[in-house]
């Protein structure tokens, strides 16, 4: 079942309607924001009130009654919907640009109808109809794209837009406990997928920040990475085979652990973001549920010291399940975000410890906070953790204990809610990410930070740029930037677009990838030519032309022309 | 420098001219072959004498003097060669079919000229000339293909064939000791590549059976797997980025540890076997040279027991660097192949141990031999080995000690020589391979074995079909078959082709992949449609048409039309 269909999810922001932070429980936040962003959230002045559906003007759906009848005949009335809530909630993802436009009461590119297929044959028929009538198709998983992956684009060239919500194709089809593989339908969202696997003693091990509101098909289509990717791999490393429906047919890759039978077709579909077809199911690698989830915190004197430590860890014998280091700015931001009162407060004693720490040269204001996660069997985890901490301590890490790690672990899906609250107060807040090899890490880190800071300053506001490393490899790691700045008085979208362009140009110039795990959508698509070159583009266009000759599949994404 | 160019390699068989086994040192072999294959190698009757170049009739090269002059002007006279040795040695690979035809004094599809580029720009010019003149291009690495990957095909449609030998583009361009990556030219062959890396304290960790006579570009083009792939990964898991020249341009993928920027172009080039362009260099993951190479042997009572053990090992906490299990037939064959005299004999004491073993129900004639390899730091290896042996023993493995493992390790590049000797005696001997998931492993094992045995019997000869597992994953493993049979009195090639077809059909019917690491060439190409389906073929054809619009790149491979 789709979250939206049940009406429990916000169409104008992240997650569930009933969840918000009580900012009064975090007394350090307001002074921090006032000082660094120049926005006083205690003044009570809100930039935006939460929009209601009545605020939104939506044009009539473009699809005529005859097509609607055909869709209802094909899928049943319950699986075809044109109501305002569903059209609006399926017309954007969750990027800053999306949330901003929602608050500005703008739905720039409304879908005309949302449909829920129940089986592959439904999708085959939908694509055939769309081809015949020249209707654009947007595949929709959890709708959590932060790069414009699910927003209809360039749809004037089509006679309408059908969004195919995969939410009702969400079953575990087969759990092969011998081979440690599971065949799962693409629409299975994180919690339900894990529930089905956990029942049989397994886990997928893929837990992105969007986990509660994203699904297998979306992860595969966008090459997602979970918080434990350091131990369990990115989604493209977890997949054995996929099944996809394209407008011209069906691709089923072979369920084998490895092959040398020519170019790897699966890696054309994985990452194609619905532009070639719709991934309907996949056979995934699964692993036995770990007994122990051990997350602890460490503090380093600088981001550089933390980075060196991650590199040494990743090039050593024993791999953590998760390892992340925040730079000085993010460590400071997290400190400002910590609970200071309220029913959840467990760590008052830490404040006393903090002053002791500072005497030894470790500070949450000028240091780098690390989370180290180890999952597995009890004895194994103890052994691995011991070896990992030995390296961390050798390289200057101060062990803060399990409390600091578990605090991060428990809150790991919640931070997206804060974004909505800050936006309402008139703060531009967004994230972007890249990856590079170790030799280039600090160079890229500095160059992109400088570009972003420069863009913030040139828009005449105050702001901060924070960064963390959260997906590590022996050869390099990701960089994940968060920026907060005062929202421009007018053209808020232009302010953001200028910063995004500055950051993206800097990423490419410094040798990074335009995206490590968010995907391209349309927001990153302008940098694809830098990523793959002229020949690469020609190859991608040829695939598009071959598998989707009428260009109905998620137009305007990945390839802009 | 190319092996062939130096004249030190056999054009009609495997490896170096000066290497052969003294079969007198292996007294068990002759009776074994007589009993199981029906061929008496002691009779002194040879089916074939080694061919000489004088035996071979070669047509005049088809390229006219003008083109030759252009090539010489482009590359220099030393890098353009039409002599008989080079034309012959570059006209086939090392499949059984190749070795058989060599002995039958047949070069079915001779190349017209062999050229050695020194830099990318040379290749750009060569492809431009070939396009202009409609000349076929065959990229050539070590020439060790066992699937017909380097033999010119369908060349009547072209005005000639240029084989581009990458042997003089073999340098280590950059060793990044911080990121553990190395940028290496495609023509670097195994030993030289390792020498360059070892000097800096690193290794690639890729050691296929062909290692001494194959190169990086060939490994990437054919998705090769080394003997230590269980620990270090297949070649496609070791590559960070590639540079390739196609007839229409250049593709350089980004040097980043991971990316979500759309479909993964690198995985189109890797596995493309020279049909889209020529991989000229790659940035590879490297790792510090291990201190310890620990290989030991174990014996299981059956192949089934050994397989169960590998599965449990691979799904456990600690991974071996290499693990392989021979089935009963291969364990018996290896036993027949063991030294019984001669200067290399070190293991006479083992014979005594053998009879003791049999009393406990373990036999080399009805058991399954396992090699377990662990590489790394000294303490780490000891710890991992202890944990691995615990699982092996629990599942019925009898530990034979390091001697048995090191014997395999030391001889691991030599067995290919034996093939040439047996062929000369009139024995059809070849290998083929696949992979599947664990749930399907024994089913596929039996089905393919039965198909091969049936084909041998229907050709009216005696023979054996042996198998081992040598590349293991948590989700499944490879199956590597070796077959030996009496050569048919006539149409030896047809005898082999019938068996190959029976085996390949059975692999596909039983759910395996047509190749786990040998590649497609033209010998496996007929089964590509089964592997990728109609839509997959359309996608691959579109890539070919786009990157190689005149179809000059390695025609007749992968895609047959």
Topology, please?
Two copies of one chain form a homodimer.
Chain A (H helix, E strand, L loop, with lengths): L28 H8 L28 H11 L4 E2 L2 H6 L6 H8 L9 E3 L4 H14 L2 E5 L20 E5 L6 E5 L4 E5 L4 H10 L2 E2 L12 H6 L7 H4 L2 H4 E8 L2 E4 L13 H4 L8 E8 L1 E2 L3 E9 L2 H12 L7 E5 L1 H10 L10 H12 L8 E9 L1 H17 L3 E4 H9 L4 H10 L2 E11 L3 H18 L4 E7 L2 E2 L2 E11 L5 H18 L18 H20 L14
Parallel strand pairs in A: 2-4, 3-4
Antiparallel strand pairs in A: 1-2, 5-6, 6-10, 7-11, 8-9, 8-10, 12-14, 12-15, 13-14, 13-17, 16-19, 17-19, 18-19
Helix pairs in contact in A: 4-18, 17-18
Description:
Two copies of one chain form a homodimer. Chain A has 561 residues and is α+β, with helices and mostly antiparallel strands. The first copy, chain A, has three domains: 52-289 and 524-561, Uridine Diphospho-n-acetylenolpyruvylglucosamine Reductase, domain 3 (2-Layer Sandwich), CATH 3.30.465; 292-412, FAD-linked oxidase, cap domain/gating helix (Vanillyl-alcohol Oxidase, Chain A, domain 3, 3-Layer(aba) Sandwich), CATH 3.40.462.40; 426-520, GMP Synthetase, Chain A, domain 3, CATH 3.30.300. The first copy, chain A, is 36% helix and 19% strand. Chain A has 19 helices and 19 strands. The first copy, chain A, has helices at 29-36, 65-75, 84-89, 96-103, 120-133, 190-199, 216-221, 229-232, 235-238, 266-269, 303-314, 328-337, 348-359, 378-394, 402-410, 415-424, 441-458, 492-509, 528-547; strands at 80-81, 113-115, 136-140, 161-165, 172-176, 181-185, 202-203, 239-246, 249-252, 278-285, 287-288, 292-300, 322-326, 368-376, 398-401, 427-437, 463-469, 472-473, 476-486. In chain A, the strands form four sheets. In chain A, strands 12, 13, 14, 15, 16, 17, 18 and 19 form an eight-stranded antiparallel beta sheet that branches. In chain A, strands 5-6-10-8-9 form a five-stranded antiparallel beta sheet. In chain A, strand 8 and strand 9 form a beta hairpin. The first copy, chain A, is globular, with a radius of gyration of 23 Å. Chain A starts with 28 loop residues before the first helix and ends in a 14-residue tail after the last helix. The model of chain A has no long low-confidence stretch (mean pLDDT 94).
